[in-house]
């Protein structure tokens, strides 16, 4: 039986929680399940509004979509969220420039399908840890061009500059990934409040240790806060049946 655990945490430095998560283990529209993690950005309260509004729009559009193919459903829903956020930002000056990252996942017949905009991440966890999504960030582009190594990237001063977000531009361009799951695979989705505070190896060690899924997520949050807790955290942890 699938086990899904989710959590958000404000961290130690922020006054508002702008991360938002959603989980549905039961069918939503044509999708057999849906998991979303979003990290909002913008002025006072705008980032929190952006992440929640985008997630709610995506859930609504997925539920009503007439599309028959998974990535078409997700792409259409993300495009609608992008359009609506931009309309809201144009109507209210306090929301100008708001946006949100998004990582979306759905699992069907042992296949994981993922959509991603921004630098929130989806990892595959087994004996090792594999980042499935690719960060849409300035630092990630510098790494891919050879200008930075991974360790330098973790602590770079421009770490928080993202190159794609829902609401940022008239058109949004998600990346899509498809993964054949194998026995023992688990799925860990998180915002950069986790991945900036913990190394992949630290995440893996916690998730492969003893304890319930709830215990492990609490320990991820606790360790991120021990390391400084500089940002909000949004987490979804899924142990699927394969």
Structure description:
The chain is α+β, with helices and mostly antiparallel strands. The chain has a single domain (3-239), classed as PPM-type phosphatase domain (Phosphatase 2c, domain 1). It contains 7 helices and 11 strands. Strands 2, 3, 4, 5, 6 and 9 form a 6-stranded antiparallel sheet that branches. Strand 5 (102-108) and strand 6 (111-117) form a beta hairpin. The mean pLDDT is 92.
What's the short story on this structure?
This protein has helices at 46-64, 70-91, 138-144, 150-154, 192-195, 200-207, 213-226; strands at 3-9, 19-24, 34-41, 99-100, 102-108, 111-117, 121-125, 129-131, 175-180, 186-190, 233-239. By secondary structure, the chain is α+β, with helices and mostly antiparallel strands. Strands 2, 3, 4, 5, 6 and 9 form a 6-stranded antiparallel β-sheet that branches.
Please supply descriptive tags for the structure shown above.
242 residues; alpha+beta; Phosphatase 2c, domain 1; six-stranded antiparallel beta sheet; five-stranded antiparallel beta sheet; 7 helices; 11 strands
Rg, alpha carbons: 17 Å
**Strand-residue proportion:** 25-35%
The level 1 CATH classification is: Alpha Beta
Distance between the termini: 10 Å
Low-confidence residue ranges: none
> What would you say the CATH architecture is?
4-Layer Sandwich
Helix fraction? 25-40%
Write the layout of secondary structure elements.
Layout: E1 3-9, E2 19-24, E3 34-41, H1 46-64, H2 70-91, E4 99-100, E5 102-108, E6 111-117, E7 121-125, E8 129-131, H3 138-144, H4 150-154, E9 175-180, E10 186-190, H5 192-195, H6 200-207, H7 213-226, E11 233-239
Antiparallel strand pairs: 1-11, 2-3, 3-4, 3-5, 5-6, 6-9, 7-8, 7-10, 10-11
């Amino acid at each position: 039986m699938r086990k899904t655990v989710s959590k958000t945490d404000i961290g130690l430095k922020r006054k508002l929680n702008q991360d938002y998560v959603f989980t549905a283990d039961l069918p939503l529209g044509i999708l057999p399940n849906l998991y979303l993690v979003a990290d909002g950005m913008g002025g006072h309260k705008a980032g929190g509004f952006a992440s929640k509004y985008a997630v709610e729009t995506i859930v609504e559009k997925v539920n009503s979509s007439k599309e028959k193919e998974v990535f078409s459903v997700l792409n259409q829903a993300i495009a609608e969220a992008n359009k609506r956020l931009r309309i809201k930002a144009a109507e209210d000056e306090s929301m100008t420039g708001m946006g949100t990252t998004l990582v979306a996942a759905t699992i069907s017949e042992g296949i994981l399908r993922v959509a991603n905009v921004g630098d929130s991440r989806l990892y595959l966890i087994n004996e090792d840890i594999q980042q499935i999504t690719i960060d849409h960030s300035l630092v990630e582009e510098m790494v891919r061009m050879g200008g930075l190594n991974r360790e330098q990237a973790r602590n770079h001063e421009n770490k928080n500059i993202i190159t794609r977000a829902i609401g940022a531009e008239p058109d949004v361009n998600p990346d899509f990934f498809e993964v054949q799951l194998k026995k023992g695979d688990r799925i860990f989705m998180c915002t950069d409040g986790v991945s900036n505070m913990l190394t992949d190896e630290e995440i893996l060690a916690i998730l492969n240790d003893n304890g319930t899924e709830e215990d492990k997520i609490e320990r991820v949050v606790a360790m991120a806060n021990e390391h400084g807790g500089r940002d909000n955290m949004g987490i979804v942890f899924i142990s699927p049946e394969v």
